Amino acid sequence: MYLRPPYGAWPKDLELCVTMLPVFWDVDTLDWKSKNVQSVENIVQREVKDGSIILMHDSFSSSVEAALQIADMLTEQGYDLVTADELLVM
User: Fold this and answer.
1) Three-class secondary structure assignment of 47-58
2) pTM beyond cutoff 0.85
3) Tens-digit pLDDT profile for the chain (90 aa)?
């Protein structure tokens, strides 16, 4: 089981209390801040690379719309979209 630590903060002593594995991201879309589909897409286009984990929040309709468009864009560029399970065992 996996956990995305809030703000990416994972104190070492937390490992003793939590049995879940932390999953961190390397592309922060700042979707919560901009709430702008084009801005989110631009950040992903600029920062994504092989093995990237993209941070987005599904509580904003703009983020959901951007995620759908980003999935299409990255697939067209030849990326394979996988789950955390699949990525972490690669």
Assistant:
1) HCCCCCCEECCC
2) no
3) 877 877 777 767 666 566 777 888 999 999 999 999 999 999 999 999 999 999 999 999 999 999 999 999 999 999 999 998 888 776
